[in-house]
Amino acid sequence: MKIESNPFGSSHQRNQIFLKFVAFFLLIGLTYRFLITESTVSPIPALQTSPVDPSVAQAPFSVLVVSTKCDIFTGNWIPDASGPVYTNVTCRHIQDHQNCLKNGRPDVNYLLWKWKPRDCDLPRFNPEQFLDKMRNKWLAFIGDSISRNHVQSLICILSQVEEVEEIYHDKEYRSKIWRFPLHNFTLSVIWSPFLLKAETFENVEGVSYSDIQLHLDKLDDKWTDQYINFDYVVISGGKWFLKTSIFHENNTVSGCHYCQGKNNLTELGYGYSYRKALRLVLDFVADPKRKAQVLFRTTTPDHFENGEWNTGGYCNRTMPFKESEGEISSEDETMRDIELDEFRKTQEGSNANITLLDTTSMSLLRPDGHPGPYRYPNPFAGLKNKDQSKIQVQNDCLHWCLPGPIDSWNDLMVEVMLNRELYR
């Protein structure tokens, strides 16, 4: 019996195999062409689809993002042994009240987590490429002390690549301007806790000695007068609207919040003033004549337990919340609902140059990331009882340790800034 030496068989069989090979390579070529032409160039690594780990906490609520690729605002915190990209030693720009390690916080587990969107990966942004993208640009943060906390985090990350120069600060050191000279990149934070014109009366500890006078129909010119200079803006409101305030509209007193019937004023509530403020702000920044690309950041939940900041409240947790544990307060939920509602109104039927930066869900799951009692060095020094729930030490359960969870806000911010068409 003769054994066929040709492994491909007869000529008919060879023709069939040849045609199959041609079809196979045509399919490969078409697939490659489709992938290349559909891709976009991004200064940060592309998001990659990945499975969800059901063992880690999922954010308890989400916002609809106008993107078919990934909702980067909904997800969970997963362990990350690599830790932060900077330390309180390598960054000299950390405000003392947020320098938790320097102030004696004994645990470091809060540094070993990263934000993981539910349906994709979000790598840390590349500071070198970000600085290159921001060459000759100006980025401004407008808001309260959380905005200052946020910008300090960004500066700490970027200063690992290029040291920054502070070129201005106001008398209270609340508003500042920095410059990265090699890139001619300007970065600023503008203190405007209401975003509106307001007269405030507080001592250095944040205790009011007279009611805030809040003008609901006038924006704060501290930021509007500078606005023409900005290429990018991160703007936010929040907690200050919960303070006792007298409302002014059309040059007359229209009501108040938490004024307890003072002078027969009408109690209109913080929801009324916050909605008025956001409508005025969003109308201003969405004006098509203004060049700045705007990121509107949502409210920041606090994690005080068994009291508030001035009534013995504390936050002594050392792990992120699981989904069933994270519960947003009624005040924060109201504020976020107002934010989303006013943002949607701005987006409807317009081509406004504004996108949402929704940090609320990811922040809610991090009760472990606050300074707590470590606002000052060694708050329990000399005390035998180390149970802080029984010791009257003022806690900060609103701002964030640096380094800490707020660093991940910048991963989201940069993704939205540089790939904004995906998130509008």
TrEMBL record:
Predominant subcellular localization, coarse grouping: membrane
InterPro entries named in the record: TBL (IPR029962), TBL_C (IPR026057), TBL_N (IPR025846)
Pfam entry (one): PMR5N
Lineage top rank: taxon: Eukaryota
Localization terms from the record: Membrane
Domain Trichome birefringence-like N-terminal: residue ranges: 69-121
Residue ranges crossing the lipid bilayer per the database entry: 17-35
Membrane topology: Single-pass membrane protein
Protein's UniProt keywords contain Transmembrane: yes
GO MF annotation terms: O-acetyltransferase activity
Family affiliation: Belongs to the PC-esterase family. TBL subfamily.
Protein name: Uncharacterized protein
